[in-house]
Design goal:
With 113 residues, the chain is an alpha+beta fold. It has two helices and five strands; from the N terminus they run αβββαββ.
Length: 113
């Protein structure tokens, strides 16, 4: 399992169309884009990494009121044991009429032998 797979499943389960990097095709009135931020080996033993910490930004784009969806995504992330490292309103994009809200997430994964 990896963070992008988990986030795709989580957001699709909430009914949010989601893609990684850029949304291809004609975007709906509400969608999300996942942007990988960092991957870090956070825990070592015997000079070998044991834990991989992955961080991804979820960019929520909405032409309507984004607050209810933001709260729904936040609750689902916390229930799925993600760490939320930042949440912020990025702004209103006049050229596209979308509100842009970002949620930065992180999750620890044990490395397999």
């Amino acid at each position: 399992m990896n963070i992008l797979t988990e986030l795709n499943t989580l957001l699709a389960g909430l009914g949010v169309p989601v893609e990684t990097g850029i949304f291809s095709g004609v975007p709906p009135d509400e969608y999300a884009v996942l942007t990988p931020l960092t991957e870090d080996f956070a825990l070592f033993a015997d000079n070998k990494p044991l834990m991989d910490v992955s961080e991804v930004r979820i960019s929520l784009f909405s032409k309507g009121n984004y607050i209810k969806r933001k709260n729904q995504i936040t609750a689902a992330l916390l229930a799925a044991e993600f760490t939320i490292t930042d949440r912020r309103y990025v702004g209103y994009e006049e050229d596209t009429s979308y509100h842009h809200y970002a949620v930065d997430t992180a999750k620890n994964y044990e490395l397999e032998d």
